Amino acid sequence: MEITLKGDTEIENIPSLKQKALRINLNEHIYGTFAEIGAGQETVRQFFRAGGASRTIAKSMSAYDKDFSDSIYGIEDDKRYVTESRLRRMLSHEMSLIEERITRDKHPNKMFFSYANTVTTIDFAKKFKGHGWVGIKYQIDPKQDYNDIILHFRFKENDARLQQETLGKLGTNLIYGAFYKYNEPKKLLRYLYDHLDKDQLEIDTINFSGPVYENVDNRLMSLQLVKNGMTDAVMFAPDGNNVLPARVLYKKNILALRGSFRPVTKVNMDMFEKSHEMFLNENRVDKEKTQTVFEITLSNLRAEGEIDEQDFMDRADLLCSLGQTVLISNFQEYYKLVEYFSQYTKARLGLSMGVNNLVDIFDEKYYRHLSGGILEAFGKLFFKDLKVYLYPMVNKESGELITSENLKVHPRMKELYKFFKYNGKVTDIKDFDPDILGIFSREVLHMIAEGKQGWSKMLPEGIAELIKDYRLFGYTRKPIVLKTKKKVKK
């Protein structure tokens, strides 16, 4: 079957699942085990059916019973089974058994691997569609250390049997890609969807590690997930590493701040700090169960029609250096962001934004694709337990301070705005710093690129130094010119 991969200009011939499995089976150097829990033994079935499996498969197992599984892999601290830590335990345990039972003296050229998954499929009520962790620990050289590819996915199908088949295809694609596409990790990502559709599953987290992936930035790999439409959003913890959104957001009060953060300014941080303080004082907001998120939409990562990946890394690094959690999303409209958060929590939500952002929310042109137009969008946005915290701005021409009381929306939207405003859905941030209202990211960016002075004072502490040290956003240090006295002719 010939298809065009998204982002590729050439037509590529994609091997069938049977061809992929058979190529692995016929490689005399590849040898390993399969351990699958929760959705049948769907991946190894592909390899058994392809033929020649005896030279590749050392063992296949499925420890379904929880007590039996615990006796093999141990008990997780959280007593859960469909987790990353469980998957890693499985991979390490099975790999240690291979090394214990198959000697290198007898098989010096064998490249060992251990494939594992721990999965839950759709429940009988069809309320929870299911999800899982899939991974492979493997070698591409018998003398090298092991490499790992670990990913998390969510099922989208409404039938358990179909989900099992989807899992088998995903696992086969992963094993094939690990051995034959490891030197092209971006393509390896896209090949995970061979013979699959984006409506069947969503891959929302992936991490590569090991000697062949030393130069792979997992954050950039996560960006590829969003860029290729494999997921709607990915998340980075303050330490800069990928993190599963569900783990961070589950049952939390969430305060989100959207922006370009190019670069993050004192205004951004003042907006965050003041709205965070107000959010924590709200009813039904537990400080210990509150998560703040700095969100950047993919549309804000584009330069001349293409995503500038280095620019993305720069923004994420600066925000993480300030101790913030960063979300990169495909959501252009705020209501989609709120819907996304609502997958993980029913607790109170907050959005912190500037005046211009709120005015844009009341612009009908953003909702023409919805059958119910702006009313449908607002139903999704404000139906949840949501409040907007509005940061003021100064009108450059008149010098007037613009707040929720005097901002101007389209005349047709005036009554709709009043409805949400006077029902407590919009509240002003009053304890703001008036001395920084004139700071805008785009002006700071222009000053940096033009080599002008004074921009560093507009940024949070430590950010200017990072921009200078790493030459971010077009910063170039001007050469020092030593002044010398002119020689006087006698």
Quick structural gist:
The protein is of the alpha/beta class. It contains 16 helices and 20 strands.
Keywords:
alpha/beta, Maf protein, Rossmann fold, 16 helices, 21% strand, disordered N terminus, disordered C terminus
Give an overview in words.
By secondary structure, the chain is of the alpha/beta class. The chain has two domains: 11-216, CinA-like (Maf protein); 247-474, Rossmann fold, CATH 3.40.50. Helix content is 34%, strand content 21%. It is built from 16 helices and 20 strands. The chain has helices at residues 17-25, 42-50, 66-73, 84-101, 160-180, 185-191, 218-227, 245-249, 266-280, 309-321, 334-342, 355-361, 373-382, 414-421, 441-450, 463-469; strands spanning 2-4, 11-13, 30-37, 57-61, 111-120, 131-138, 147-155, 201-209, 233-236, 242-243, 253-258, 290-297, 302-303, 306-307, 326-329, 349-354, 386-391, 393-394, 401-402, 426-428. The protein has an eight-stranded mixed beta sheet with strand order 10-9-15-12-11-16-17-20, with helices on both faces. The longest helix is centred in the middle third of the chain and has 21 residues, at 160-180. The termini are far apart. Residues 1-11 and 484-490 have low confidence and may be disordered.
